[in-house]
Amino acid sequence: MAGDKTNIISPSGFAALRAEYDLLFATERPKLVETISWAAGNGDRSENGDYIYGRKRLREIDRRLSFLARRMKAARVIDPAEQPDKGRIWFGATVELADEEDARRTVTLVGDDEADAGAGRIGWNSPLARALRGAATGDLRTVQLPAGPKEWEIVAIAYP
After folding, report:
1. DSSP assignment of 78-145, as one string?
2. DSSP β-ladder status, 121-123 and 104-110
3. Which of 1, 73, 89, 94 could bridge across to 108 with cysteines, CB 3.0–4.6 Å?
């Protein structure tokens, strides 16, 4: 299970998890409990939409709170700016890649909870990130994709 192993994350990624947890715990959950209590006082619960929906939403919030708590407990916050070897690809690196057709792609290695492939942020445990770890500028790395292997050349490495 993903929650059982170390969760490498940036300081801003950890702050985002904490902010979501605090919002759910301190704001959304108490409002929902109040609504459920009000709806429960309205009599027949079997046909009470507010009560039924409220209970369902409360279970969803509690599951999310539990997930966030596990992720934060397993978190190991790493500041990319403090990576000792900036000549190689490690957590937090922004990497420019070129494939066999010289098509360029820029990706940043972030924690799995911060990943957003559309924005070029790939999770630390993704196949591409695993293949890139430890590589230096000029190195070639092969990534196993569902469509087959693809080779990338590391063109540039930058850290914040």
Report:
1. --GGG-S-TTB--TT-EEEEE-TT--EEEEEEE-GGG-BGGGTEEETTSHHHHHHTT-BTT-EEEEEE
2. parallel
3. 94
What residue ranges do the domains of the chain occupy? 2-77, 80-158
Residue type, 154: I
C-beta atoms surrounding 76 within 10 Å:
11
Structure-model confidence comparison of residues 95 and 41, the more confident one? 95
pLDDT in tens, 132-152: 999 999 999 999 888 899 999
pLDDT score, position 109:
95
Question: Which structure tokens are listed for 90?
Answer: 């490690």
Instruction: For residue 122, count other CB atoms closer than 10 A to its CB.
Output: 21
Could you tell me if 9 and 114 are in contact, meaning their C-beta atoms sit under 8 angstroms apart? yes
Of 136, 130, 127, 151, nearest to 95 by C-alpha is 136
Fold of 80-158: Chitinase A; domain 3 (3.10.50)
